[in-house]
Amino acid sequence: MEGHPLALHDVMFIPALVAQASDEQNKKWLRRAQRREIVGCYAQTELGHGSNLRKLETTATYDVSTQEFVLHTPQITSLKWWPGGLGKSSNYAVVVANMIVKEKHLGPHSFLVQLRDEITHQSLKGITVGDIGPKLSFNAIDNGFLGFDNYRIPRTNLLMRHSRVEPDGTYVKPPHAKINYSAMVRVRSHMATGQGNFLAQALTIAVRYSTVRRQGFIESGEQEVKVLDYQTQQHRLFPSIAKAYAFTFAGYETIRLYEQLLKEVDTGNVSLMADLHALTSGLKSVVTHQTAQGIEQARMACGGHGYSQASYISEIFGVAVGGCTYEGENMVMLLQLARYLVKSVEQIKAGESGKLGPLVAYLAVKVDGVDLEKGVEEYMKAFQHVSRLQTWKASEKFLKLLKSGEKREVAWNKSSVELTRASRLHTRLYIAETFKRSVQEVADPRLKEVLTDLLHLHVNYELLDMATYALEDGFLSSSQLDYVRDQLYFYLAKIRPNAVSLVDSWEFSDMQLRSVLGRRDGNVYENLVAWAKASPLNKTDVLPSVEKYLKPMMNSKL
Ligand SMILES: CCCCC/C=C/C(=O)SCCNC(=O)CCNC(=O)[C@H](O)C(C)(C)COP(=O)(O)OP(=O)(O)OC[C@H]1O[C@@H](n2cnc3c(N)ncnc32)[C@H](O)[C@@H]1OP(=O)(O)O
Ligand SMILES: Cc1cc2nc3c(=O)[nH]c(=O)nc-3n(C[C@H](O)[C@H](O)[C@H](O)COP(=O)(O)OP(=O)(O)OC[C@H]3O[C@@H](n4cnc5c(N)ncnc54)[C@H](O)[C@@H]3O)c2cc1C
């Protein structure tokens, strides 16, 4: 769980080669990387810049006389900073640098760069590399720093699947300006399943423990209850179980779309890029945020023992919450989706609704009301309504500011909180819709029934959470919200008998969970005592600090 020093080799280095290196280049590099003869990472973020890639300071200047690129980090803020596996493990990196050819700045491009000797593993001349120090979590990964002092690499180390620099310095442009960002889009496409998995681990621990832990009474005179029988406990945990499933289903879809994108890009069709970028930007933001919230609730649901490292939930939290920052800080990514939403509104206003992609077509269709008692489809219409309402509101605010003479960037900044709200609602609609579609496709009737209960719980929980938007324009009445609340409580109780099976179905082994509270056999108390006894502080009865500090203090006559 603390991460693996070679994680980025598989998660970003190899995928960056697959997506961005030419077939010819990959004949040289890919097999070696796959066999782990060379170990790589993805070095993009710098000390001074991570979000704003256009301002990266590392330069790769083409020297036509030697047909080499000269990599250079001109000042302290240009040092690469954060890349996982860079500090100590990797001997190669895909380095993102601003490419300069014939004095023209051509923006961020990716280069394969050797950092360390393949035999001695010592860093090469012109390279400064090391580890950035302990972090909140992920401490088994050597996130690193990297500097270049006019370090030369061959021209052919520019990844040339989509753009090229010819020996004479002629630049051949890629078919899409942002195609070099594909390694990030890939990771974002995979994040919903990865985060769903973190959430699932925390919930497995909390739900299992909640059936072992007995405390207090629901009805007086009976045996103390399992804490999972409290409605508040169910409310804390079950909606997150639904989310863990929902994120996984949404993630399967984005992974499929990324694979499709890769194939299409190879045939020169880049039309899916904008859609997938917008979708994955929103999804990674919403999913990581809700996962962090869900894990923290799972920890609190374990009471005092949740705070002990024996629960292991704090470690899961530390790793998962990194996702709110890496692969694009969440606010920054929500604003990327917002650009797409605003453009869609502008298209509708220009009478071009027919050109809208399938995920935003609903923005053009007004619905007057819904009959929630008819089922999940009506909930979807309600989600569409709140997302449409907020998207239009935020867009109109931005467009009005523009019309009043504000500069585009200033108008954008002044509308940005509203815009991020629109992005979240749009993404939550997408998650609910993929959840619904995925459950509809389940063939086994018994499985389908349980998942349908989870889906109902999810849509009621989500709609209640968005209630202010729906009440704002009178789309939902307060009696409709009462219905939603009743449904929510009904499904909490209905799911209770299946709760343990729902988490057990993820099939995490005790070794994976590493949690005393979440043990499959439920022997929590004996093992908590054994775990505490194994604490380093208990190796001796009397600590050396007694002689050194406590006794002088206790014997002092002051
Ligand atoms: C096991 C643990 C693993 C952890 C691994 C972690 C790895 C990392 O963290 S790697 C580093 C990740 N870094 C980031 O994610 C940086 C975030 N920043 C960006 O991605 C970009 O800077 C940006 C997208 C926020 C902005 O890029 P910029 O070039 O400045 O583009 P504009 O804002 O001007 O937008 C222009 C235009 O391009 C569209 N666009 C941007 N990115 C993409 C893309 N990937 N695909 C398709 N289109 C893209 C953007 O939407 C704009 O479109 P229009 O609105 O139509 O103009
Ligand atoms: C665990 C971990 C692993 C990582 N692994 C890698 C890796 O392998 N390779 C790699 O290259 N990088 C890696 N990174 C770096 C990571 O991708 C960046 O930290 C991330 O993209 C955020 O960029 P930043 O640090 O510049 O944040 P900043 O942009 O400085 O964010 C600071 C604040 O400014 C706000 N902000 C910034 N720009 C805007 C804007 N335009 N509009 C509104 N608000 C804005 C943000 O929302 C945030 O609140 C990793 C980071 C972490 C934490």
TrEMBL record:
Which UniProt keywords are given for this protein, alphabetically ordered?
ATP-binding, FAD, Fatty acid metabolism, Flavoprotein, Lipid metabolism, Nucleotide-binding, Oxidoreductase, Peroxisome
Residues annotated as domain Acyl-CoA oxidase C-alpha1? 181-342
Which interval of the chain is the signal sequence?
none
So which cofactors does this thing need?
A: FAD
Principal subcellular localisation of the protein:
other
**Positions of FAD binding:** 45, 84
GO molecular function terms noted in the UniProt entry: acyl-CoA oxidase activity; ATP binding; FAD binding; fatty acid binding
Q: Which InterPro entries match?
A: ACOX_C_alpha1, Acyl-CoA_ox_N, Acyl-CoA_Oxase/DH_mid-dom_sf, Acyl-CoA_oxidase, Acyl-CoA_oxidase_C, AcylCo_DH-like_C, AcylCoA_DH/ox_N_sf, AcylCoA_DH/oxidase_NM_dom_sf
A Pfam family matched in the record = ACOX_C_alpha1
Family, as annotated? Belongs to the acyl-CoA oxidase family.
Name of the protein in its database record: Acyl-coenzyme A oxidase
| Organism encoding this protein | Caenorhabditis japonica
